[in-house]
Design goal:
Layout: H1 13-16, E1 20-24, E2 30-38, E3 41-47, E4 51-52, E5 63-71, E6 78-86, E7 106-109, E8 146-150, E9 154-155, H2 160-163, E10 167-171, E11 177-182, E12 184-185, E13 201-203
């Protein structure tokens, strides 16, 4: 699942700069690592209040906040989505069948409307530069009817300015589209109530095998 989890450590983001990020195997063995370092970002965008997807008649009423940041440029340009949602599908558990297309997805779509289901379109990325759908594995995990997380960088080949105005869609466990809103530019720094640095540290170096 392309989602991170919240880990309460009692340290600040700056405190983790230069620390080591380690990946373990199923037996707990350390198999890869890299040093955390600051990355350069090129702005943020926000998703206004979500509304029911056009034509959706189900009981889910997804609400909450979504912020989108950009990492990289050109064909390496990626979006990182931070979401804090309520009213999501409670069936979107870690045991859900994520082989179902779009199950529990949080995706940017090609359309620029949330009023007409026929115009929302499919997932949005530069298909000329990137052959495989980068949104296919981006999902949320529900805790009851809430979902909070930060996606892994979604390499779309698109600049943040190119995704502004497009539809952000939330899916249920069946892959159905249940909520939608159009992405807007980020308001001026200091007025959103959210720190602009939540994405600031990533393992920028290639993961390398750890010493035994």
């Amino acid at each position: 699942v392309g989602q991170n989890v919240h880990v309460t450590t009692g340290v600040t983001l700056a405190d983790t700069n230069g620390r080591t990020f380690v990946v373990h195997d199923v037996d707990g063995g350390r198999v890869a690592c890299a040093s955390l370092a600051e990355v350069s970002e090129t702005g943020t965008a926000v998703v206004p209040p979500l509304a029911k997807y056009p034509g959706y008649q189900g009981a889910l009423m997804v609400q909450g906040t979504v912020h989108i940041a950009q990492e990289g440029t050109g064909t390496s340009a990626a979006q990182i989505v931070r979401f804090d949602l309520t009213g999501v599908d409670p069936a979107c558990l870690p045991t859900a069948d994520f082989s179902v297309a779009n199950a529990c997805g949080v995706h940017i779509h090609a359309g620029t409307t949330c009023d007409d289901a026929s115009q929302v379109g499919g997932h949005y990325w530069d298909s000329q530069a990137i052959s495989q759908d980068p949104w296919a594995k981006i999902q949320y995990i529900a805790d009851g009817t809430t979902a909070t997380g930060v996606t892994t960088p979604v390499v779309t080949g698109l600049a943040l300015s190119e995704v502004v105005g497009h539809a952000f869609v939330v899916h249920d466990v069946t892959g159905g589209r249940v909520a939608c809103a159009l992405i807007e530019p980020q308001v001026a720094s200091g007025t959103s109530g959210h720190s602009p640095q939540w994405w600031a540290l990533l393992a920028t170096a290639a993961l390398a095998p750890t010493a035994m």
